[in-house]
Amino acid sequence: MENRDLLCENLSVSSDGKTLLFAGYDTNALAKKYGTPLYLMDEMRIRERIRTYKKALFDAFGDKGHALYASKAASFKRLYEIMREEGMGIDVVSSGEIYTAMKAGFPMAHSYFHSNNKTDEDIYYAIECGVGYFVVDNAEELFAIDRIAEEKGLVQNLLLRITPGIDPHTYAAIATGKVDSKFGSAIETGQAEEITRTALSLKNIKLCGYHCHVGSQVFDSDVYISTATVMLKFVADMQEALGFKAEQLDLGGGYGVRYICEQPKIDIYENIMQLGAFMKSEAKRLGIELPSVSLEPGRSIVADAGLTLYTVGTVKRIPEYKNYVSVDGGMTDNIRFALYGAPYTILPSGKMDEKRDMKASVVGRCCESGDIIQENVMLPSSVGRGDILATLTTGAYHYSMASNYNRIGKAPVVMLTPDKDYVAVRRQTLEDISAQDE
Ligand code: LLP
Predict the structure, then answer these.
(1) How far apart are CA 168 and CA 170, in angstroms?
(2) Residue having the nearest C-alpha atom to atom 8 of ligand 1
(3) What does the pLDDT read at residue 204?
(4) Alpha helix (H) residue ranges in 166-286
(5) Weakly modelled stretches of the chain, pLDDT under 70
(6) Pocket-testing residue among 299, 340, 400, ligand 1, by greatest number of atoms within 8 A of Cβ
(7) Using CA atoms, how far apart are residues 218 and 220, in angstroms rounded to an integer?
(8) In 147-232, which ranges are E strands?
(9) Predicted confidence (pLDDT) per residue in 128-155, tens digit
């Protein structure tokens, strides 16, 4: 058994060495009970990650440190309930996420509404739902919010999304902090100052501070220090130029997680403590009061709390070329290899004691050659029809990016706690899939 592949403490192997356990549960038994493909989520791990962020932010910034969950990483009712129970704020990006959070009874005053293109309908809906803060991407949106807030007879709180011009050293599709990004207003071009002036001139909004997010799956802690340096300087510059004192500074999400054992483990607590010490001294050096500081992690809250189980179907061996192991899911439940070439660890749930001597591409069931979960996976050569495979670290951006391509139903999400396993999202039925067809 290759222990190094057990990426997170919630993974272990049964005493006879055969079965993969997740959050203490026998993964083969869960596959049998709920069917596959199946998303599992370890509720205690989610709560533990939330508490780590909250404690770190409190220890680093006192009452001025706030943690928000970026719910795009995994969005369904039960998760918003957990966020509510844990006293976490949330970041939402669409009317759909707002609606789901409302259904969970989430206190919307603690929500931040992002997105680079909010429609008027979104803005009306968010205001009606009492969203605490809009994170405004551009001037057009600012005018729309001001107009709709006036119609509604209220003053809407907001932050401005600023592009600090930082390269987060992650893959291009999820880098967002560079000047040419589709998100936010760049400091370098003068647009960040311009939008601040505009915001300060409008009557039906209240500018509370700034937001930035430089990218996702970031391992380099220097990235946050550089981002904080640029943003604090901008806060100081705006205070000097416009007399505007930012109350809030949100540095976004992005801490990386391990999909394969070669990736480093990040000590979130330590990182945030360092960031706190740096920001306090930098604010002092600049002669400004440190605004309250938020982080909005998504992936690092839920990623390794998740795991996907599949049943193997066809195993195709093309002599001297390649082996294919087909599973009953694919790009419909995990689009990340197709989109980003993302790496994954895949383990044979019931054959953890066998030598992994067959190299294979683990592929899905969609009619598309790009429907690959991972290439060059080492599996026991005995793996065949009916065996269960587990893809690790699938709690973030899997269920939330799932599709019905080929009219394949979305997999259910089953939560695991020390006392019980329960369905948080049920499996889509054939009826569900065609429910909107007139
Ligand atoms: N805040 C903002 C404004 C964001 O855009 C994001 C992620 C986050 C926070 C959370 O970042 P995290 O802590 O999860 O890295 N679908 C891609 C990831 C896209 C990330 C989009 N924004 C993936 O599967 O890797």
Answers:
(1) 6
(2) 253
(3) 98
(4) 191-201, 222-242, 268-286
(5) 1-2, 170-178
(6) 299
(7) 6
(8) 156-163, 185-186, 205-211
(9) 999 999 999 999 999 999 999 999 999 9
